[in-house]
Automatic annotation (TrEMBL), chains A, B:
The keyword Signal does not apply. Keywords: Lyase, Magnesium, Metal-binding. CDD domains: rTSbeta_L-fuconate_dehydratase (cd03324). Residues 198-294 form the Mandelate racemase/muconate lactonizing enzyme C-terminal domain. This is L-fuconate dehydratase. Pfam families: MR_MLE_C. Its cofactor is Mg(2+). The keyword Magnesium applies.
């Protein structure tokens, strides 16, 4: 019997704000980060890695929340945790004191997602399968047992979910064979960060076309004239038939979104992404009505399954961009995939950041095999950075994710990366003024014996 | 010139789970807690206290988030922070890295609320006025400058908000005079916790009637037969004309909520509170359609102004129960009060917990004086516990909050209470097995030099 003997939590931060990678109209100085957990057992070959993605400050808050969320796993049997992931999820989620801090949103939900990502990673490793294949091999009943259907019965019952999955059961192998051949279609955002110069934009668009991409996404929303000029460049390079998507990262109110997108409609964008607050279901519905045929996409900040339920009910979106680390792992993602399939909305997950591409490839592949059975309108994000820190990095070829073949959820980072980029004690940060100041601050706190925080002016540089 | 020289953050927890105080169908073992901050200046008479309310575990996570959120205040001029609270709020809120962890929800939003509560407390103390009076003395322009109207322009513009406030400007003193005489109407939840016996319920209902309450609220949702019996007892004691409210604390899906409330409609509840997920705007609208004339109320878990905007747009609620610590303090609460007034929905704030009654009395009093101008359907929650820890406890007489007269937001706790109930080092917790184990765990962590968390089985008792 293999049991959970402990875990390690890491606050890992990459200094991406020093380039303009990841810059958009809302997030100008992101340090792409992961609050990362490794679950250990008494068998060194049985472990699980998981994380949530953040953009810098507050990654320590997530790490602290992850530690609390993971405590109930200690001493439990790995087989039981992995074989009944729905039960594991409900055990972790049921803490009513932690629930108060959400419910099902914010730091506590990110933390639950990170811990369950590690459980799913362990489950796939134990099975000797990549996660998508573990999921594809589960029966409809097993999948629905693992799914968080709470608060959803007005649009999706357990029986309905089982029926949906059962209908695709017999043809799963056909779709696996198809994807082994073609890969899963993806698009690139690497060209379109807001901080890039026009020349760099032009060059990166051409490179994307040359690499086989049929979809390219640009950030917009900071300045209308700039957006018009940049979209003109991109459309010129990619030609009239390739797909151009635009992403405003929530900077607009609803009326402003409508006016701005109408100005950009001349470049025939496939979708406008995050036109306004991610919480504004009715706002997205209003934008969608007003800017058609430009589609509306959102979801990377979609906090939970109840939000997505309403986005579907209100006909508010054309594309569902769920996030593998913002939702509470596969258990909640299954619910959103099932609802999206019922409403006929393509799920095109958000990716980029740290390790999101590694995770979402599994989700999209499984979605096609077992939930939607459809590739129409499907294209999953790909951003080409930070993959070198992962032991099983995603592989993209000719505009498509190649099916992962190694056991797990592709969630493991190299120990050398953790040692170098752990904040503030890793070798990279310890050598910076910021890391050094933070180390001193923490040491002083420890010396004074103050867990919380007697902070005095001058302490913070 | 007085500047912010530092702050202290406390993780304060009261062992309320040892009685059944606060027990409901969702939250069975709440330890009422506050993540509490005191802002200091170089003038000992100039300080500000603020907090967010939690129910136990995770209060440390909120405290850590509060520390980060408050850092930008260090070294700033108190006068400027207090005289332009909208600017202060936007400065703290604009951190895009912390925004990623929400946005505007969960732990980070609770923390922003706590810090801004302390700023408003300081502002009122500096003015020598109770907060309600400080707000009532501000011009429409000043109030709207302090209000977070972002993402709201499709239902409320700045000009519209100013016009609404200006219309009530000349008659404010009449309403102040009225409230000085009558107090602000409240209701009690002290009678109706789910864990109380029938005899205790009967006795507490009778006491509430004797104390002048015309509204009594009971928790429901755990067991339908129990609910029917308990509502029968309550209705019998309070008579046919007093108002009985029921509160399910989010335990139902939408169809279940409709069915259950129809069974309880025989007792003529004024409202059903939190029938389902607090995020489910369309779900609340469906419940409201189905259970009328029973009203629908929600808001204590209403995460932000965008959620409330949609609750109003969708005609989803009859009563808005915003929470003084879940929203980001007065800056966001003003936005919700203004929208509620525009849509004609009474704002009946959630209270109880730790210090929520102390805060919401100011908000409700101000709401009547300057925003709604109306008492129809208005009744603010009151729960009679833990007030003894506050230096300016709320005072209720004959079913109404007596207008607070001391300077501030009534947010200051006694140092003796902080010293006794700080977790885990306060004298109360240090003497308990749980507090003692937690102290050992933290000491071991410090000795090992691990900020995050190398946790091994057996470490946690």
């Amino acid at each position: 019997m293999t049991t959970i003997t402990g875990f390690d939590v890491y606050d890992v931060r990459f200094p991406t704000s020093s380039s303009a990678d990841g810059s958009d109209a809302m997030n100008k100085d992101a340090d792409y980060s992961a609050a990362y957990i490794v679950l250990h057992t008494d068998d060194p070959d049985t472990f699980g890695c998981g994380f949530t993605f953040t953009i810098g400050r507050g990654n320590d808050i997530c790490a602290a929340a992850i530690e609390q969320r993971a405590l109930p796993l200690l001493g439990r049997e790995a087989a039981q945790l992995c074989d009944t992931p729905g039960t594991t999820y409900r055990m972790l989620k049921q803490d009513s004191q932690l629930r108060w801090l959400g419910p099902d949103k914010g730091v506590e939900h990110l933390a639950l997602g990170a811990v369950m990502n590690a459980v799913w990673d362990m489950a796939a490793r134990r099975a000797g399968l990549p996660l998508w294949k573990l999921l594809a091999g589960m029966t409809p009943e097993q999948l629905v047992d693992a799914t968080d259907l709470s608060y959803l019965s007005d649009v999706l019952t357990r029986d309905e979910a089982i029926d949906m999955l059962a209908k695709l059961e017999l043809t799963k192998q056909e779709r696996i064979d198809q994807l082994e051949w073609t890969g899963y279609p993806c698009y690139t955002t690497s060209a379109g960060w807001l901080g890039y110069s026009d020349d760099k934009l032009r060059r990166l668009c051409q490179e994307a076309v040359d690499e086989g991409y049929r979809h390219i996404k640009l950030k917009v929303g900071a300045n209308l004239e700039d957006d018009i000029r940049r979209l003109g460049i991109a459309r010129e390079v990619i030609g009239p038939d390739a797909n151009l998507m635009i992403d405003a990262n929530q900077v607009w109110d609803v009326p402003e979104a409508i006016a701005w997108v109408r100005e950009l409609a001349q470049f025939k964008p496939l979708w406008i992404e995050e036109p306004t607050s991610p919480d504004d279901i009715l706002g997205h519905a209003a934008v969608r009505d007003a800017v058609a045929p430009v589609g509306v996409a959102t979801g990377e900040h979609g906090m939970n399954r109840v939000l997505f339920k309403q986005l579907f009910q209100a006909n508010a979106i054309d594309y569902c961009q769920l996030d593998a680390c913002r939702l509470a792992s596969v258990n909640e993602i299954l619910a959103v995939q099932l609802m999206a399939a019922k409403f006929g909305i393509p799920v095109n997950p958000h990716a980029g950041g740290v390790g999101l591409c590694e995770l979402v490839q599994h989700l999209s592949i499984f979605d096609f095999i077992a939930v939607s059975g459809d590739l129409a309108g499907r294209v999953t994000e790909f951003v080409d950075h930070l993959h070198e820190h992962f032991t099983d990095p995603c592989l993209v070829s000719d505009g498509a994710y190649v099916l992962p073949s190694k056991p797990g959820y592709s969630a493991q980072m190299f120990q050398a990366s953790l040692d170098r980029f752990a904040y503030p004690n890793g070798s990279f940060w310890a050598a910076t003024p910021r890391g050094s100041a933070e180390r001193s601050r923490r040491a002083r706190r420890v010396a004074e014996g103050t867990a919380f925080a007697s902070v005095r002016s001058g302490e913070i540089s």
